[in-house]
Amino acid sequence: MQPIISINNLNKKYLGGFEALKNISLEINKGEIFALLGPNGAGKTTLISIISGISIASSGEVKVNNYDVIKDSLKTKSIIGLVPQEVSIEQFETVLGTVNFSRGLFGKKNNPAYVKGILKQLSLWEKRNSRIIELSGGMKRRVLIAKALSHEPLVLFLDEPTAGVDVELRKDMWNIIKNLKKKGVTIILTTHYIEEAENIADRIGVINDGKILLIEEKEFLMKKMGKKILNIFVNKPLDIIPNSLTKYALKLSADGKTLTYTYDINKDRTGITMLLNDLSNEQIQLKDIQTKQSSLEDIFVNIVKE
Ligand SMILES: Nc1ncnc2c1ncn2[C@@H]1O[C@H](COP(=O)(O)OP(=O)(O)OP(=O)(O)O)[C@@H](O)[C@H]1O
Ligand SMILES: [Mg+2]
Questions:
Q1: pLDDT tens digit sequence for 235-286
Q2: Global pTM?
């Protein structure tokens, strides 16, 4: 696949000497949804700001569509749309006015049909003549997306697009993002909601303390690192786990009603058959069993901890 962004040995030291990015190398493929995960202060916004040309790297190279973000900044900026982490928009301007203004900043001719299209897609068309101050928080977030899309960018950065929005709007956002991908837009988003990456990302990058810890296809990551969990609900609460079952490293719930077994689906033998046999030998009667795939969240917490 062809990269639309290539980052090579990027470093960022802020005034005062704080190293926010340490030797980052990363390629973003054309048309993908890339989710950047990492705790507060990991360097996500710093990285996005450098690619978008808002902040300047201390060393290293960033190319967008083969243009250097410093030498050809006008070109790279026209390719990029940025939805910033902080909501900051002109409160007294109208929705339509502010989106048209953003487009104008890039020297693009008026295109009422295009602007109408994005406002409709973001369910803002009815509010086009409202002033920003009259909108709800979620609507303001959508205005930020409309602004970022106003100049028809090839690459869209969303810095925590769904922080503080309700479940409904979060799902709307995911649909909006997936639709943009269908139109060929490359999307890079940062998020604290692992569920978000799990739902929409093609690839995932984990950043912590200014360093990239991992870059992987989401499906692969979940398969490779994912464990499965078997919950066994017993008829009569247990006081302890019988000795004959210690080899399974089971966990017993506080109420004694649930045994939890963790196994690796990629292994030839999961140990489930033997476990069920041994339970029956111990005369433990089962009420129900349930299996669960460990989530990206478990995987993420493990990576950052290590
Ligand atoms: N202008 C600045 N001057 C000095 N240090 C800064 C500046 N901006 C950010 N930093 C520091 O760089 C580090 C990375 O910050 P950044 O905003 O990139 O983190 P982040 O991953 O986006 O975090 P969050 O999830 O909280 O948004 C932090 O330790 C932050 O304090
Ligand atoms: Mg940030």
A1: 999 999 999 999 999 999 999 999 999 888 777 888 999 999 999 999 999 9
A2: 0.80
- Is the Cβ–Cβ distance between 221 and 213 less than 8 Å? no
- Tell how far the Cα of 206 is from the centroid of ligand 2, in angstroms: 14
Q: From the CB of 17, is ligand 1 less than 6 Å away?
A: no
Mutate to test the pocket of ligand 1, among 14, 56, 58, 192 (most ligand atoms within 8 A of CB): 14
In the chain, residues under CATH classification 3.40.50.300 are 3-223
CA of 214 relative to ligand 2 center, distance in Å: 18
Contact (CB, 8 A) for 141 and 172: no
Residue 147, burial from CB neighbour count under 10 angstroms (0-12, 13-18, 19+): buried
Residue having the nearest C-alpha atom to atom 7 of ligand 1? 14
Does domain 226-305 correspond to CATH entry 3.30.870?
A: no
